[in-house]
Amino acid sequence: xxxxxxxxxxxxxxxxxxxxxxxxxxxxxxxxxxxxxxxxxxxxxxxxxxxxxxxxxxxxxxxxxxxxxxxxxxxxxxxxxxxxxxxxxxxxxxxxxxxxxxxxxxxxxxxxxxxxxxxxxxxxxxxxxxxxxxxxxxxxxxxxxxxxxxxxxxxxxxxxxxxxxxxxxxxxxxxxxxxxxx
Length: 182
Description:
The chain is an all-alpha fold. Helices cover 64% and strands 0% of the residues.
């Protein structure tokens, strides 16, 4: 496999510099994922915009975490599982939920279990979910809006998970305490 460039603000293409500088200011360091994606400014911008859009959906912090981590774990993303564990902690998500997602055990509520199961079906079936899977999801209290929002979250995670796979992005020191393997 080819070695993927890791960019700093100084080495990044011009259109990526502002995003990297902003990330460094906000997080105290440039996340490895961003340093890799900076090689393609449009990919970096798209990822950041999808992240902002997904966090603005109807999902609360627990539900965002369920969607993100369900996808990360299913895709076996060595980088995103620890990163989203740190993000969940920063959003005050119950560590029991985070542990359940990381360890693929039952969710703490029937509604979150329905969200997890439907998200997993969307990933595994590539959107070709059955009428029964839709019914179970809707019976849990979700609606068409949340189906579409899962697709938005999935779009974000495909970018990051796949980039981390091809680039073998090293887990950042800030996420290292949450290291994960399947």
